[in-house]
Amino acid sequence: MGTIDVDQAFIQEPEHRPSLSTIEGQGIPVIDLSPVTSNNPSLSSIDALVKEIGSACKEWGFFQVTNHGVPLSLRRNLLEASKSFFAQSLQDKKKVSRDETSASGYYDTEHTKNVRDWKEVFDFLAKEPTLFPLTSDEHDDRILHWTNKNPQYPPHFRDILKEYIKEMEKLSYKLLELIALSLGLESKRFEEFFGFGDQTSFVRLNYYPPCPYSHLALGVGPHKDSGALTILAQDDVGGLQVKRKMNDQEWINVEPIPHAYIINLADIIQVWSNGAYESVEHRVIVNSEKERFSIPYFLFPAHDTEVKPLKELIHEHNPPKYRPYKSGKFLLKRFEGNFQKHREENLQIHHFKIA
Ligand code: OGA
Ligand code: NI
User: Fold this and answer.
1) How far is 104 from 121, CA to CA, in rounded Å?
2) What are the residue boundaries of the Fe2OG dioxygenase domain, all occurrences included (predicted)?
3) How far is 186 from 178, CA to CA, in rounded Å?
4) Which ligand has the minimum distance to the alpha carbon of residue 241?
5) Gap between the Cα atoms of 233 and 156, Å rounded
6) Omega within 30 of 0 (cis) for the link into 129
7) Which of 28, 294, 331, 338, when mutated, tests ligand 1's pocket best, judged by the most ligand atoms within 8 Å of its CB?
8) How far apart (Å, rounded) are the C-alpha atoms in residues 139 and 144?
9) Residue 135 DSSP class
């Protein structure tokens, strides 16, 4: 019998290792978006939807949506393309490796909270070029123009990704409107942060190979997403878990629902809403037998957006809870912490909390 050669970089501290028992019970809300995707919605159905979104954001920070309007064929095509891409040899995948000139490309060395994730990734930018600061130093104004890495295989990969991004944009604008309304804001309140084409959003193709020590490692360690929100397609294997906000803080499985999208609020909405809505911790369990694919779209504003609590939500009894920060500088600091196993905690939104 061979022994498994365990690479220490992947090993989670005991408190973060996945427990083998799974929690049964109420899962995250499933919300039908047809009031905003069908042809003649009634005002009362939109009202009810806004309420539903508001409670899901408050109680969970995570929900699934159905009747979202994204064509199923497109999602299938992208999933197939992703499978073909990752099935190539490492050498072929490394032809489009991510490097210092852009955040786009293939890599298998991401760390979350300083432990290596059991996954491979291909990132693709929504805008070309994507403007991004050269360094995380606040006084350095130099800007890079990031472009995408374009795999030659499978054919039409780039076209499918571009089409998919258009659909993600449409869906994210609908969600932002509903979220704005649920906070008592104007429906288009968030549009100014995304409307001018200068975003730093990207699509990520995640591939989680079967893991021989799935009880010790994680596909993605516990983390919160740092954008505004994330729209995730997962396949039917399962593995995503959410930290329940209510009382016990248990890890809850996010059950795969065919064709649904998983929406999670991320750090920037937490700050914009001055903490009314929170970015929620989640992680990915790996499977010892099955491979798993997922496709998150991370919605981010322009790099130079100053992220701070919205003035409409601030008043005498609700003073700002967060210091303003530049979206791009924050993301860059986070990236810098993502490629090695080191001891100190990497940058988190609570570091901007006003004591
Ligand atoms: C992520 C993430 C979840 C998944 O990539 O940030 O949380 O199910 N992924 O792949
Ligand atoms: Ni995430």
Assistant:
1) 10
2) 199-301
3) 10
4) 1
5) 20
6) yes
7) 294
8) 15
9) S
